[in-house]
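Retro notes (design track)

What went well: tokenization of the new backbones is finally stable.
What didn't: we kept losing track of which sequence belonged to which structure.
Fix going forward: every design gets posted as structure first, then sequence, in one message. First example under the new rule, 328 residues:
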């Protein structure tokens, strides 16, 4: 119930934001733009968004296998789609909800599977950064901005890969008053994240992330084409990827606010797209991506919630709800 209330709050805030954007742009311009939109494009955009989820599921399930977390593909797919309910959380980190569902199914400790969500977001960030580099020259000091992001990525990789230092920090954490009792969970989580971001998995999952997010970039391109305001695929990819990164970095729920502002603003500033079309295209692409994801997640969670109980896995691994067991 608490989750529903938070989602409703985010949706209400987004509705007010979109309303403010429409008032700023002008109702007449918005309505005129919607009238000229080729609505036949919409199903293709939704299909591309769903293809993004399917490709990202491959990464999720690969991570499960990498950590030896037994889960049938069908149940894994249900868990992944249910996690989309949390797409409207800051940085999508609310998708750690998937770890809770996995625990319900086979008893795997949340501390073991939760790092998958961190790895998902990290590889998504790298992929979006690579896609944004194609248009870095379009922005003033764009090279410096993305160079800074690359340094941050490198720093995170070095920090995670420095196992000796991490183990010393975990040992030291045992003496801290607030987290001392959770040092074993920290160790389990670190072991997972260390394996997930090792070179081979990192390269493979980053490639998967590029393919998945490019689907939504193509959807953005199609939306603009539907408004008779097509732009080349490279700047369309840059604008969408950059706006998504901005929304994630500013940690607003679902990127609401910064992402829409960046999408519309960059269309006007860099591609001279009329304000009415830029605002309308932003609304449609966000409905096809963020809010479609939330709708899919809520639908699957409602249909499959009763199945998230001690399901048999591929190797016969079974547990009751709430029983924790970490398989090393």
């Amino acid at each position: 119930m608490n989750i529903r209330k938070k989602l409703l709050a985010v949706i209400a805030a987004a509705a007010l934001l979109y309303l403010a954007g429409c008032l700023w742009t002008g109702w007449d311009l918005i309505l005129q733009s919607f009238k000229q939109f080729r609505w036949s494009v919409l199903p293709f955009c939704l299909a591309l968004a769903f293809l993004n989820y399917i490709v990202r599921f491959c990464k999720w399930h690969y991570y499960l296998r990498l950590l030896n977390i037994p889960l049938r593909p069908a149940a894994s797919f249900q868990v992944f789609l249910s996690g989309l309910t949390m797409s409207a959380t800051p940085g999508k980190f609310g998708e750690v909800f998937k770890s809770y569902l996995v625990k319900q199914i086979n008893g795997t400790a949340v501390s073991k599977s939760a790092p998958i969500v961190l790895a998902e977001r990290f590889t998504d960030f790298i992929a979006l950064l690579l896609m944004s580099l194609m248009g870095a020259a379009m922005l003033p000091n764009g090279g410096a901005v993305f160079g800074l992001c690359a340094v941050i990525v490198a720093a995170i990789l070095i920090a995670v890969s420095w196992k000796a230092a991490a183990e010393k920090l975990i040992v030291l954490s045992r003496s801290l008053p607030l987290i001392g009792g959770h040092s074993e969970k920290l160790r389990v989580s670190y072991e997972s994240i260390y394996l997930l971001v090792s070179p081979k998995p990192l390269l493979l999952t980053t490639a998967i992330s590029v393919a998945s997010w490019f689907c939504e970039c193509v959807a953005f391109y199609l939306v603009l084409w539907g408004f008779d305001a097509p732009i080349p695929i490279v700047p369309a990819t840059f604008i969408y990827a950059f706006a998504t990164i901005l929304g994630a970095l500013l940690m607003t729920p679902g990127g609401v606010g910064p992402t829409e502002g960046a999408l519309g603003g960059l269309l006007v500033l860099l591609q001279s797209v009329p304000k009415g079309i830029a605002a309308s295209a932003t609304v449609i692409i966000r409905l096809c991506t963020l809010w479609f994801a939330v709708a899919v997640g809520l639908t699957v969670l409602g249909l499959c919630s009763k199945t998230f109980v001690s399901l048999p896995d591929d190797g016969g691994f079974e547990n009751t709800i709430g029983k924790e067991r970490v398989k090393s």
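Added context from the reviewer: The chain has a mean pLDDT of 79.
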